[in-house]
Design a protein that fits this description.
The chain is an alpha/beta fold and 270 residues long. The chain has eight helices and nine strands.
């Protein structure tokens, strides 16, 4: 099978394989596309939490991006963990040269276990510069609260936060409702012309490590393959929910989802 599109992933590494670059590569591959990477940080972590984060020098991140796309041009770019001000500025500099329009930003700030993955200066640069240069941002409720400086308690609060982000210059927002306390999960898609609520019943499980990384990579993949942004979000949400339902139950903490849930293996290997 020939890959349908080419995706460049700019994100951190997760040694447990559930989130970060590892989840991104699995997602893009499972959805029939080709993954390329620029690693921003190396983390030591497992399902119970993050042990350490080693930063990749900003210049090296920029080199990874530019040297990769010089040879293979991506159809879309997914951006994940950018832990420092200088890293974000190096990515912005590289994106000006790459000129790929389909860019999805997952503003990763805190790991599932509560470990902070980005410093305050980086949040300021992300908020003031990067978010207006991408096509879509996919914050969860805690991340949207940091970006907007408001508390989000319900669906109306999510819509209000998304509108504030629009005023910051964001083109499209998918505000994820997984942290909400309701029986159903509402994901809010908003731009200047459209508001759509994706409503799905919550799946009772602790094994949701890497869902944000997976969702943003799935959106980037569907978008690169020619679906419009709204449909890309819808299909990506379905893929993530299917992967959660598969419930691998690996590890002692917040386990990973099953990125291979969409694949049927017909060939027998002898």
């Amino acid at each position: 099978m020939k890959p349908k599109s080419k995706i460049l992933i700019i994100a951190g590494s997760d040694s447990s394989g559930g989130a970060g670059i590892q989840a991104d590569i699995k997602t893009v591959t499972a959805l029939g596309s080709y993954a390329m990477t620029a690693v921003t940080a190396v983390t030591s972590q497992n399902t119970t939490g993050v042990n350490s984060v080693i930063a990749v020098p900003p210049k090296e991140i920029e080199k990874q991006i530019l040297f990769t796309v010089k040879d293979i041009k991506p159809d879309a770019i997914k951006i994940g963990m950018l832990h420092s001000e200088n890293v974000i500025l190096s990515v912005i500099k590289a994106l000006k040269i790459v000129k790929t329009k389909k860019i999805i930003l997952d503003p990763v700030m805190v790991a599932k276990g509560g470990f902070k993955l980005i410093n305050d200066k980086a949040i300021k640069v992300l908020k003031e510069q990067l978010i207006r240069k991408v096509h879509l941002i996919t914050p969860n409720i805690p991340e949207a609260e940091v970006l907007t400086n408001i508390k989000i308690k319900n669906l109306d609060g999510m819509i209000n936060a998304a509108n504030i982000l629009l005023k910051f210059g964001v083109k499209n927002i998918l505000l994820k409702g997984g942290h909400g306390k309701t029986k159903y999960m509402n994901d809010v898609f908003l731009n200047k012309k459209e508001l759509k609520i994706f409503k799905n019943k919550k799946i009772k499980t602790k094994n949701t490590h890497g869902t944000g990384c997976t969702l943003s990579s799935a959106i980037a993949t569907f978008f690169a393959c020619g679906k419009d942004l709204n449909k890309s979000c819808e299909l990506a949400i379905k893929y993530v929910n299917q992967s959660i339902r598969s419930n691998l139950n690996y590890g002692k903490g917040h386990g990973p989802i099953n990125h291979l849930s969409s694949i049927k293996i017909d060939r027998k290997f002898k």
